[in-house]
Amino acid sequence: MQKNEHYLTVGELASLARVSARTIYNRLSAGGLGLPPSTKLPKSRRVLFRASDVESWINQHKESVAPIR
Q1: For the chain, is the Cβ count within 10 Å smaller at the N or the C terminus?
Q2: How far apart are CA 17 and CA 11, in angstroms?
Q3: Residues in Cβ contact with 57 at an 8 Å cutoff, skipping those fewer than 6 apart
Q4: Residue 21 phi/psi, 5° resolution?
Q5: C-alpha–C-alpha distance, residues 17 and 19, integer Å
């Protein structure tokens, strides 16, 4: 981990993605399919996601939505 890099928890990622934390954990146990890269802390079950990776992931998965008139 880089010293000044910001990381998000599973709960924070779930909130941003508007899914449950359980959904994130299920995807992690399935190999992380459809998620940004994650980091597991040594001797811990805590999983973190680098904020810059999450931002890139969100930008890659944005849907084009027509403006409401």
Answers
A1: C
A2: 10
A3: 35, 36
A4: -60, -35
A5: 6
Element of type H or E holding 49? strand 47-50
Please, are residues 1 and 42 in contact by the beta-carbon 8 Å criterion?
no
Contact call for residues 66 and 25 (beta carbons, < 8 A): no
Tokens found for residue 69: 């008139």
- From first to last of the 69 residues of the chain, give the pLDDT tens digit: 556 889 999 999 999 999 999 999 999 999 988 899 999 988 998 999 999 999 998 888 777 666 677
Nearest Cα to Cα of residue 49 among 63, 22, 28: 28
